[in-house]
Amino acid sequence: MLNNDTSKNDINRLIDIMAALRTPGTGCPWDLKQNFKSIAPYTLEEAYEVLDAIERGNMDDLKDELGDLLFQVIYHARMAEEGELFNFADVLSCICAKMVRRHPHVFADTQANSASEVNLLWDEIKAQEKAAKLKDDDAIKTVSILDDVPRALPALTRALKMQKQAAKVGFDWPALGPVFDKLEEEMGELSEAVSVGSHAEIKDELGDVLFSLTNLARHLEIDPEEALRDANTKFTNRFHHIEHGLEKSGKSIDDANLDEMEVLWKEAKKLPAR
Asked: What is the SS3 assignment for 222?
């Protein structure tokens, strides 16, 4: 069980540390130069490092990386406080209210007895929240079901989320067969563009192929981002086998030819997955 007093003291200490880093004259020159935009890439990087620790099953690293991610939240909140926009307490208040509001099956009398029912309830509540925001805004806006998909997401993840949103209103292939047909069609268009098209046309057709592959992954109930990360890990392990094999034979990767590397690659493919 967590000691609440200790936890509060540690949070307050972290907030004080961030404030000290951002204090003009006595703070850190690097930290004082940063703004929301310059810090955003580090926030994204820390989130991916959390994911990496989870996938490796390393709980010590996960503990450390979660701390780094929390520090990013503190960092953004501090810069907002300096601009008299909001502070860390406002962030906590906002997320607490949102989680209670989006879980009426836990904190109120609404019934939801399965994960699928919870997902439907969650979508309904988010739609109500969006409608309330638009009502409070005097400007006339065009509302799209794709508006909730952040533009800053990795491209594969964003494509997957957009497709899921479109599928909710029936804009989707009814079965797996047409998805394969669409992928084959897009591959044909890419092949044609490579033969006679410009670089811009090739890029456009390649994007369509990747989008179609993402759609195929969705129909197969596979996260394409996760599948690609797994493929990256597999490639890394096999390439390491090539490097180690060449090192054992007294050769460097720079001195080896493709045939030598291909032999080691085939060896690596026969090894158990790691």
From this structure: coil
Dmax over Cα atoms in the chain, in whole Å?
Answer: 72
Three state DSSP letters for 249-266: CCCCCCCCCHHHHHHHHH
Domain for residue 205, yes or no? yes
Let me know the angle formed at the C-alpha of 115 by 110 and 168, rounded to the nearest 5 degrees. Answer: 95
Residue 149 resides in a domain: no
Length of the chain: 274
Task: List CB contacts of 196: < 8 A, sequence separation 6 or more.
Answer: none
Residues whose CB falls within 8 Å of the CB of residue 261, separated by 6 or more in sequence, listed in order: 242, 246, 253
Q: How many domains does the structure of the chain reveal? A: 4
Nearest to 207 by CA among 153, 156, 171, 149: 156
How far apart CA 164 and CA 215 sit, in angstroms, is: 9
Reference 142, options 150, 133, 134; nearest CA is: 134
Q: Is residue 213 part of a domain?
A: yes
Rounded to whole angstroms, the Cα distance separating 190 from 197 reads 9
d(CA 129, CA 99): 13
**Same domain, yes or no, for 88 and 40?**
yes
Q: Look up the domain containing 162 and give its range.
A: 155-222
Q: Are residues 206 and 120 in the same domain?
A: no
HSE-CB for 68 with a 13 A CA cutoff? 18
User: HSE on the CB side for 62, CA within 13 Å?
Assistant: 9
**140-180 pLDDT tens trace:** 455 688 888 888 788 999 999 999 999 988 999 999 999 99
How far is residue 34's CA from residue 40's CA, in Å, rounded to a whole number? 10
pLDDT per residue as tens digits for the range 56-72:
899 999 999 999 999 99
